Amino acid sequence: MVFDLPSQSCRIGSLQVTGSASSTIRNPATGEILACVPHLGAKEAALAVDAASSAFRSWSRGTAYDRAALLTRWADLIEDRYASLAELLTAEQGKPLKEAQRELRYGNSFVRWYAEEAKRVYGETIPSERADQRILILKQPLGVVAAITPWNFPVAMVLRKVAPALAAGCTVVLKPAPETPLSALQLVELAAQAGIPEGVLNIVTGPAEDIGAVWMADPRVRKVTFTGSTEVGRLLMSQSARTLKKLTLELGGNAAMIVCADADLARALSGSMFGKFRNAGQTCISVNRFLLHDHIAQSFTERFVEQVRSLRVGNGSDPSSDIGPLINEDGCNKVEDLVNDALRSGATLLLGGKRIKGTFFAPTVLADVTPSMRIAQEEIFGPVACLSTFNDDDTAIRTANDISHGLVHYVYTEQLSRAFRYSEELEAGMVGINGTAISCAHAPFGGIKQSGYGREGGHHGIDEFLQVKYVSIGIAS
Ligand code: ADP
Predict the structure, then answer these.
(1) Is residue 237 exposed (0-12), middle (13-18) or buried (19+ Cβ within 10 Å)?
(2) Atom of ligand 1 nearest to the CA of 177
(3) Whether residue 414 is found in the same domain as residue 322
(4) How far is the CA of 257 from the centre of ligand 1 (A)?
(5) How many domains does the chain have?
(6) What range does the domain containing 110 cover?
(7) Looking at residue 477, what is its pLDDT?
(8) Same domain (yes/no): 53, 120
């Protein structure tokens, strides 16, 4: 497939930068070369901060209504190109076309939602104890934001970060994942076409360490918003400590799905398929561990295995594919390694268990997985479901919580009191009761523990890009 990709250059301020070297981007399903993107470095990273810093004054001083109008035009242009962007997304990332379409709609919903939320950045007035004083609280944009995004949702992660930042009045320097920069480059071009001024949104492709080091050290970068591994999150935190940046870190998870004895099993099954196999399991909110109550374990497992057996693995561009390839050889090796380790440690293989070809991994179901196995402790990021059983709520809660991460857990129960108990006692930034499709533009997404901090989505999401300023006004009493 040949894409019409006119500008394989990075928009930095008024420049289209190509640099002297480039990196090849390949389709993970076929190995085919899709495009080459600039291999930029420290110099261009600094240039991007210069551009974002220069643009900040006028962007932040414009009205929220002006910014909303531009964001809405951007969303319209993205929507006009849903079909071609979805094909590009599937080609660079591997996910089935229907999922790419869904990702575009989901990602763009953040642009539309934050275009409106820009108008609702309300301050406060606080009654003073003194008659000769008035107290105002202003909310102001932080300044230049560095946004660093992963490869699993190349469109949605860019839009989920950039839209609230721009709505708040911040300007952005963006580094997409090296595996999937093509859709990000297109989104930045569309922002320019929508009339978002030069320097407000800048993109730099190239070696992460070099670009990241410049941005973390630069005092003009006031905020970092990052989705990726805990290891890199920690590094960014330590690198940015010298300049005391505000951080939003979304660092992956290890979700448990707890299916109680009173669960609606049909609903739990459908939530399991989406919660486990979307994007071939390569999502941070993917179900890593299924905890099944003894009473329903057998019937759930039989029906689940049948549904998993019916999944079609293939090139994402084939409309009948449910599962595409894993992103690369390293990702596939890790999944293989975790499955083999679990089998050696006593897990039972019910389905799949191995790679099919290239980086396509067979949808896999393992039973008898115990909490101490590596596969239960580490984020799998592959189409592998790990089943185990429990017989009381205390044990399920303890097992779900007994991990280093705390992004999301899911619970299936028809009992209100039980739903409340799990919601309150599970250690996670999010809990899904009777559903796994929980992420949306209007609710706060994010984690606790080693999953990071800060929230994306909802009014909490725009606050991440704002600072509170207290103004005390003395007046004649
Ligand atoms: P994954 O293992 O899922 O690729 P990473 O945390 O390595 O997760 O990558 C997420 C994003 O962070 C990508 O854009 C990647 O290029 C970037 N990244 C990786 N290492 C660094 C670094 N040292 N500094 C800045 N960004 C980095």
Answers:
(1) middle
(2) 14
(3) yes
(4) 28
(5) 2
(6) 10-251+451-471
(7) 87
(8) yes
Tens-digit pLDDT string for the chain (477 aa)? 445 555 489 999 999 999 999 999 999 999 999 999 999 999 999 999 999 999 999 999 999 999 999 999 999 999 999 999 999 999 999 999 999 999 999 999 999 999 999 999 999 999 999 999 999 999 999 999 999 999 999 999 999 999 999 999 999 999 999 999 999 999 999 999 999 999 999 999 999 999 999 999 999 999 999 999 999 999 999 999 999 999 999 998 999 999 999 999 999 999 999 999 999 999 999 999 999 999 999 999 999 999 999 999 999 999 999 999 999 999 999 999 999 999 999 999 999 999 999 999 999 999 999 999 999 999 999 999 999 999 999 999 999 999 999 999 999 999 999 999 999 999 999 999 999 999 999 999 999 999 999 999 999 999 999 999 999 999 998
Q: Are 243 and 315 found together in one domain?
A: no
58-74: pLDDT as tens digits:
999 999 999 999 999 99
CATH number for the domain spanning 414: value is: 3.40.309.10
Contact 51, 199 (CB under 8 A): yes
Q: Any idea of the CA torsion for 268, 274, 277, 281, to the nearest 10 degrees? A: -110
Same domain for 343 and 232: no
Amino acid, single-letter form, for residue 16: Q
Residue 155: both structure tokens together: 């469109």
Extract the tokens encoding 103: 């990702």
Regarding whether 314 and 207 lie in a shared domain, the answer is no
- Closest residue by Cα to atom 9, ligand 1, is 228
Expressed in angstroms and rounded, the spacing between residue 176 Cα and the centre of ligand 1 is 9
Same-domain pairing of 221 and 295: no
Residue 398: both structure tokens together: 């303890």
Helices H, strands E: what count in the chain?
15, 24
250 is catalytic: yes
Question: What is d(CA 340, CA 39) in angstroms, rounded to the nearest whole number?
Answer: 37
260 and 217 within one domain: no
Q: Is 425 a catalytic residue?
A: no
The gap between the terminal CA atoms of the chain, to the nearest Å, is 74
Does residue 66 belong to any structural domain of this protein? Answer: yes
**Best residue for ligand 1 mutational test, from 232, 247, 329 (most atoms within 8 Å of Cβ):** 232
Percentages helix, strand, coil for the chain (3-state, rounded to 5) are 40, 25, 35
Cα of 185 vs centre of ligand 1, distance in Å, is 17
Contact 51, 346 (CB under 8 A): no
213 in the same domain as 312: no
